[in-house]
Amino acid sequence: MKVNQNYSKLKENYLFSTISNKVSEFKQSNPNENIIYMGIGDVTKPLCNAVIDGLKKAVCEMSCEETFKGYGPYQGYDFLRQAVSDYYAEHGVKLQLDEIFISDGAKSDCGNILDIFGNNQNVIIPDPVYPVYVDTNIMNGNNINFINATEQNGFLPLPDKNIKADIIYICSPNNPTGAAYNNVQLKEWVDYANENNAIILYDSAYEAFITDQDLPRSIFEIENSRTCAIEICSLSKTAGFTGTRCGFTIIPKELKRDSVSINSMWLRRQTTKFNGVAYIIQCGAAAVFTKSGRKQINEALSYYKTNANIIGECMDEMGIWYTGGENSPYIWLKCPNNMDSWKFFDLLLNKIHVVGTPGAGFGKNGEGFFRLTAFGNHEDTIEAMKRLKTII
Fold it and tell me: Would you state the pLDDT for residue 196?
């Protein structure tokens, strides 16, 4: 028996585990201090009433023989896939139901999608980046080509024609930087992917935070993207499903490689390794797309957007450079006085008891930057910014 030696190439600790350990050590020495958490991007507003009603109704159905559900469809129930299709149609994107695969969240599919691709793929990943993209490709033994996202390009790198890619990761609005690609920039990536016979794995987990009507909310709004892209989305941040777990992956029928349908390959993978999302959860997810559900989740999104504005206004007042906030729940700021990101983390934790995320944890280009999230409550966000002003 041999183990997967690629795991030995991973960093010993996951970024957020390291942060958690540091905070735990601080709390042991300072048990009475009020810590404000603006690090891990977890939501704080509860599930909306429409979702709760959908979950309750489904629970009752599971108690009756006439309405009980056992194994469900591998791709998800039609009522939820139709709701997703209708949502995309609002943005001019037409989807067939069998192009939509219901999942337990974007994180799972971002890693699992690599199952259907061969070994030793040449992968393009921006730096800084969400660690899951990097770690899952290391686990699979792929060749990673990092492209530089920097202050100079607004943390929105464009294709390098000198790199031959098989797989391209794009997250827009981006985690961690909050920067979002426009139509022209995404078209460059789509053209590059088609020219290189590559596939874009497009993470749209934060599309609901886009307020600028000129920014695309789906890769499939871009011409010719159906021959080169897979879109992975989640209800975690859109509707507070971080603890409920539901998302979806979209694979167009036109997407083929070596005359093989990628859609069919993913279906085959899912039927073997995944039994689908629970019926109760899918009923709650479907409620997100109803008229009342949309109204209620928009209230929560507005709450978080207000927090982002509070943080952004504080950065403007102190003259700190940043991206994000306007179309994203993340504010990616430049550490003051050229401080490195872990030292800035320690300063905030020890001096003002605020927890953020050091940019270095997202890659070498994250050094000197810092991520704050808007997922707390108003009072904590305001208080954290007051504390920040006392040390900068």
Answer: 96
H-helix or E-strand spanning residue 317: helix 291-318
Q: Which of 169, 159, 157 is nearest to 125 (CA)?
A: 169
Could you tell me which of 329, 11, 39 has the C-alpha nearest to residue 175? 329
- pLDDT, tens digit, for every residue of 263-288? 999 999 999 999 999 999 999 999 99
Question: What pairing do the DSSP bridges indicate for beta strands 357-358 and 322-324?
Answer: unpaired
Nearest to 251 by CA among 289, 285, 202, 186: 202
Q: What is the mean pLDDT of residues 109-131?
A: 95
Cα–Cα distances in angstroms (integers) from residue 239 to residues 174, 206, 359, in the given order: 18, 11, 26
Evaluate whether 329 touches 240 at the Cβ level (below 8 Å): no
Q: How far is Cα 158 from Cα 185, in angstroms, rounded to an integer?
A: 7
Give the model's confidence band at 345: pLDDT under 50 very low, under 70 low, under 90 confident, else very high.
very high
Q: Is 333 helix (H, G, I), strand (E, B) or coil?
A: strand
Q: Which two tokens stand for residue 69?
A: 């559900």
Q: How far apart, in whole angstroms, are the C-alpha atoms of residue 230 and residue 316? A: 37
Can you name the residues that pair with 82 across neighbouring β-strands? none
Q: Tell me if 221 sits within 8 A of 92, measured CB to CB.
A: yes
pTM for the predicted model, two decimal places: 0.96
Q: Which two tokens stand for residue 256?
A: 């083929």
Helix orientation angle between 279-288 and 49-61, rounded to the nearest 10 degrees: 150
The tokens describing 339, both together, are 């401080």
DSSP 376: S
